[in-house]
Amino acid sequence: NTLRIQECQPSNVLALFDFDGTITSKDSFLEFLRYCFGDFRTGLGLIVMSPIIFGYLLKIIPNYVAKQKLFSYFFRGMPEVVFNELGKAFSDTQLHKMLRPGAMARIEWHKKERHRVVIVSASIESWLASWCEFNGFDLIGTIVQVKEGALSGKFQTPNCYGEEKVKRLKNVFKPCDYRFKYAYGDSQGDSELLELAENSYYKPFRH
């Protein structure tokens, strides 16, 4: 299931939020690596993968390729149950430490207005799901591929970035039934999402 729908939210007005950098002040992927492997092993892994990282920064390697290679280096072969347990523990104990107060205040406003809050993120659903469920948010994110009970190192869905965000969103929330009224993002990967909404906000919670 690529979307966790909160049936208690009847509104057809959608407030669409990118997660990393928009709601958070840190990158959740990097923080998840540190949580799972510690600073030393994470740093060592990033050094080993530095050619991929620099290739991405120089726009030689596409975002989705760099991300999957990095993810595969750290998690390929990990049992699915272990990965999901780590994701839930991280979601429950760490995410609140990196939230932007302004973003959470805006989300609270949307909830009071009975708007439906949807997190549309390139991050892996496994470490956002518990936090989203607790707060009553819908979630659309990247899903990992599992084979024979272990992570293959690949993604089951395309990386939820750029045009893929809009594609995944429209697959679930049909434009004839929902209003894409508000969108919040902070990077090039959110451009299509921001263009979709009636009211869009770029890096709105930085002050």
Beta-strand segment tally: 7
Q: Span between N and C termini?
A: 36 Å
Mean pLDDT: 92
What structural class do the secondary elements suggest?
alpha/beta
How large a portion of the residues is in β-strands, by DSSP E?
Answer: 15-25%
Number of distinct helices: 8
List the helices and strands in order.
Answer: EHHHHHEHEEEHEHE
Helix content: 40-55%
pLDDT below 50 for ≥5 consecutive residues: which ranges?
1-9
Main pleated sheet: 5 strands, parallel
Rg on CA atoms, Å: 17 Å
Quick structural summary:
With about 210 residues, this protein is α/β, with parallel strands linked by helices. The chain contains 8 helices and 7 strands; from the N terminus they run βαααααβαβββαβαβ.
3D structure, described in words:
- Helices cover 44% and strands 19% of the residues.
- By secondary structure, the chain is an alpha/beta fold.
- The strands form two sheets. A five-stranded parallel β-sheet has the order 3-2-1-6-7, sandwiched between helices. Strands 4-5 form a two-stranded antiparallel sheet.
- The N terminus is likely disordered.
